[in-house]
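Lab notebook, design round three. We kept the backbone fixed and only want residue identities now. Task for the bench partner: fill in a sequence for the structure below.
Input structure tokens:
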């Protein structure tokens, strides 16, 4: 015995919803269910929807549970993040503090350095792409300031720059060409 459709909708309501929706697959599903409301068999509804009977049954179950919104394709959730809020807070502290060359062996953080730090600290395996996405979500960019030598003297740099006279002069005005 097939699963009955919910009674708070009818075929005309589903057809009206199918006309209004911007989602093509949802409209196709609504039209197939509208045919069932009008007395068509599940096999005919499957032919209208271009699917099998099992998929029509799945549509009926979703429609009965969630209404027309249940027929919209949704992106699957995917795997949960490996970083917890505690990991993120500690990562922000490390980025803000910056590396200590003697301890961390680097003068600026790179993603591979942070991956190694996460492994050493938490035994947390994480890919470069995932960490890049997480760091970007925390509001950081991969751009870094240009490194400067610790002994750089601004006065010596400005004294070294040469000041040359301008060699370009303004051109003389051109004469108008004689007509031929």
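Proposed sequence:
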């Amino acid at each position: 015995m097939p699963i009955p459709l919910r009674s708070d909708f009818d075929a005309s309501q589903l057809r009206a919803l199918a006309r209004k929706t911007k989602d093509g697959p949802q409209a196709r599903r609504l039209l197939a269910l509208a045919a069932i409301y009008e007395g068509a068999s599940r096999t005919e509804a499957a032919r209208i929807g271009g699917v099998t009977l099992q998929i029509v049954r799945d549509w009926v179950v979703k429609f009965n549970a969630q209404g027309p919104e249940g027929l919209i394709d949704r992106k699957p959730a995917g795997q949960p993040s490996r970083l917890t809020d505690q990991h993120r807070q500690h990562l922000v502290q490390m980025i803000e503090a910056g590396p200590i060359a003697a301890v961390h062996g680097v003068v600026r953080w790179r993603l591979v350095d942070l991956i190694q730090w996460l492994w050493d600290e938490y035994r947390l395996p994480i890919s470069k792409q995932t960490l890049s996405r997480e760091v970007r979500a925390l509001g950081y960019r991969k751009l870094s300031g240009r490194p400067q030598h610790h002994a750089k003297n601004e006065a010596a740099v400005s004294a070294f720059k040469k000041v040359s006279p301008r060699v370009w002069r303004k051109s003389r005005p051109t004469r108008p060409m004689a007509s031929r």
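Keep this in mind before ordering anything: Residues 24-37 form the longest helix (14 residues).
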